[in-house]
Amino acid sequence: MTSPRIVSLLPSATEIVSALGHRNALVGRSHECDFPSGIEALPVCTRPRVKLDGTSFEIDIKVKEIVRKVLSVYEVLIDTLKRVSPEIVVTQDQCEVCAVSLPDVQTALRDWVGSDIAIVTLTAASTTAVYDDIRRVAGALDAVETGAHVVDRMQSRFAEISERAAGLDHRPRVVCIEWTDPLMAAGNWIPEFVEAAGGENLFGDAGEHSPWLEWEALLDADPDVIVLMPCGYDLDRTREEADLFSEHTRWLSLRAVREGRAYVTDGNAYFNRPGPRLKDSLEMMAEMLHPECFSFGHEGYGWMRLSKATAA
Predict the structure, then answer these.
(1) Do 7 and 33 touch, CB atoms closer than 8 A?
(2) Tens-place pLDDT, residues 2-42
(3) What is the pTM of this model?
(4) Which fold has domain 6-149?
């Protein structure tokens, strides 16, 4: 059976489609899709409306300004989308500042008279929702059995780590930071990961959007572990953010920083991307929270200790 022509408009969807065995059916991607290797050669079907560079504070200002004007942060490149002529478009309806949203795609396609394009919408806000998204894409691609295998592997690793962590005596108090200026704690599936890996999550609720975090609240909590995972930042970019933090006495006064339990991660590839590699993200969380118990070999490329990162 010939696979349908697929356009993926977010990185996690591209990874899901590829994990389901339909990598070769992809004919277009978002501007942020970068995995698996070689995917960059596909035509780009989206772009940001503003240049998202500069400091975290400057990016935050740009995004808030465009949202204030009731504009989408990203736009669909309609001419490119028409040229690649997809039969299935995979998009999302969970975060309008992370990727093009469902309304963006519906607007782009509404003038295609007589078109017969299926839109598959992902809504992941928890681990269960991620599994559901994988099954949803698998159903659209007639790959239900393969989808079940992908989900089973993820669930098995989650259960294995949870069971091992449940027997540990100490559960460190953990803060995961998804944006640095202004501060934002991590929500969605990350609180579940902290608890499953043997920690106590202090800010952000499972299945809910990531909340803003006041410095005073962070200082008062004085966590045992801090994990930096800024949305869209790779390991090197997160290291730069850590360097900026190291200039502030408030940051240096925190227990986790003083005791070498602050970590930087490749949030863009792992923790912020609700696809099959969340399995690796959970392994990394376990390594950071309980290095005496867990070792999967991710240190150095998926995460680093802050003391080593800033000295590098």
Answers:
(1) no
(2) 779 999 999 999 999 999 999 999 999 999 999 999 999 99
(3) 0.90
(4) Rossmann fold (3.40.50)
